[in-house]
Amino acid sequence: MLAFALAYERKSELSLALGANLLRLLDERRVRARDLPYRSGIAKDAIANALSFLEKRGYIAIERAGPSRMVHLTPKGSDARDAHQRRLATVEKRWGERFGTESVDRLRAPLEEIALDGGALSPRLLEGLTPYPENWRASVACAAELPHFPMVLHRGGYPDGS
Fold it and tell me: What is the pLDDT of residue 70?
């Protein structure tokens, strides 16, 4: 993952984590900021930091709508989201040329088998994330999906930031 991130970020203004976890969820339509942790699998603190970073650099706009903050991509953000998708494909293509497409496919196949089930999170992966009933996490709503790339904060490595 580190090698892939370095190849991706070598020519990118934004990190792979921002593109994979936030830009992919946003478009020109407004989304409630409070829905992003659930939809991305990223901790509220990480979302707040990322939104601040993206807003200051003109990738997103944040507006108030009553008690909610609404987020949407600016034209610069839409370009960055599209560039993110192209960059992923470019890095993967270069890896195929460098290491052979069969090697890349052999790396991808078991990861997809564990993580995906017809495009949705695999029950196999979710089994390992289900908290014990008496654990405090059992009372917290689970994210709709896992981060597409790790975003580790100063608080720890668990996706919810704890």
Answer: 96
